[in-house]
């Protein structure tokens, strides 16, 4: 069955809730904030690099890293996103509205962190390699010398000399 | 076995840097019985430290200290060099072209270009030939001296098929310091890619695993990793007497020296010379010509990526998998002076996302990355003329943790370089389009890995920093031993020429030491 955005966002929501439960040792305010922020950031990260095939956990991981980098930019950026969406949960916003909101902030320091971290987490993960067609680290497999470094078959044949 | 020389031993040659120039020089001197202390700012990695992980390896061996850029370069860290034993031979993709004859005679061949400082080299290809030959044999360069070439990879075969279609004649898997078969105690290449993150197989030549251990096998080599040189100390007669440095614990030392050779890669070599100013040398050491730091050259560089009609998987195999040499010539009818080479390179998906679509995001962006598997890549490396205003200076106020002023790299693209880049982009695009590429992209914003020219050689002390042996005109026992010496950049990757110059310099240095003139 083809995975959809909705399923990824549902996964994100469940993971964020689980994270909030895991954080119950901390003060309620901190845990609550981190749950909402985590879900919002992960959902926004999905719109930065939307691959419905990817596990929701990767987007949550990106969101967690952004929160942990924790500058004032991030707090202010989240506040801006919430204001721009007038309280409607990100997952329920129309695509055009989501894109417009992100476009309006794409020159901000917050957006650069958001984009940079999302790309870093996703594009360094083997789950994404399959999507883009990349092999990743080759040393544990003895390189590519016996794994297709010269297997191209669609080129016009070279003339024989 | 490795030696340990006393700080007060003033009979040693101090070499700053253990990369291509410093490592080659150290091996030459020590194997001929000259005592060498080598100060290397970075730490020493073992083969087991190398991973196929570019961001991690950059943390392990990259030069991460702050540098500023001005002009047509990134504002922060405008150059990409290494801080590790082995220097940039850890990072290089091991391309080993020689300069062409006309490239040693740029001024005579091209005439002076507007706002440029072109000059002929004080030596010729004929004089360099024996040193190039020795260097090629040392490094085991494929396609030279009967050493077999590397096999053809997918990325190369795409470029070659396109080259054939557009009428190019001179293309092959290049001259590489990567073993095509076991040689010199190192294995043949496993085509893993990631050459610029260090070669885990040790098929790629580096000073770390070749010249450094060869020097250590003598009793004359004292390598000091994690030691940052901050000053060349001179006496009131204007003779270099010692090098001051900070060790890994932050302790300052002074190593006495008979001769000092600086091979810190252009930015650091310049910074050390300028930071060693005294009342006798107020503008910086060896800078009576006011040329130290000027004439800074990179290469005309641009990347072309073609979205091919079939899968390529360009990341499989050596990052440089082959070259087209047809554009390496001086032909003013193309609208610029000097030549360029086209050679393949490959990038991982994260680099591609940032190079081809800086700031990109969203559905279309995600969709375009799905075509990564179909991308073929090549890069232009072209001659970049020297300009007085392209210059490395010291920041007036900002200092680093060694209390050294931060380097500022000021670089503007010359119109000749812009014209060359445009021409090469059209030619590279034609190569891919001839095979039915559905889209072609270019990118030009790179941190430079080829840094040259800031202590240029010449016969006239008024217009150059070093003589034709790399010995500074102003301080007779001070040498420069890296790409800073280059008078012009040619379109060749600089390492083979840096090593050849170091071999030549070593001969001269040893002769002077033996005759007692140093």
Describe this protein's structure:
- The complex is a heterodimer of chains A (161) and B (518).
- With 161 residues, chain A is mostly helical.
- Chain A is 61% helix and 0% strand.
- Chain A is built from seven helices and no strands.
- The longest helix of chain A is centred in the N-terminal third of the chain and has 21 residues, at 28-48.
- Chain A starts with a helix and ends in a 29-residue tail after the last helix.
- Mean pLDDT of chain A is 88; it is low at 27-32.
- By secondary structure, chain B is α/β, with parallel strands linked by helices.
- In chain B, the strands form four sheets. In chain B, strands 4-11-12-13-10-16 form a six-stranded antiparallel sheet, with helices on one face.
Secondary structure: elements and pairs:
The complex is a heterodimer of chains A (161) and B (518).
Chain A: H1 5-22, H2 28-48, H3 56-69, H4 72-84, H5 95-104, H6 109-123, H7 126-132
Chain B: E1 13-16, H1 20-31, E2 36-39, H2 54-61, E3 68-71, H3 106-110, H4 125-139, H5 154-166, E4 171-172, H6 207-216, E5 221-224, E6 228-234, E7 240-246, E8 252-256, E9 259-262, H7 265-275, E10 300-307, E11 323-324, E12 340-344, H8 349-356, H9 363-369, E13 375-382, E14 391-399, E15 405-411, H10 415-433, E16 439-443, E17 478-480, H11 495-515
Helix pairs in contact in B: 1-6, 1-11, 4-11, 5-10
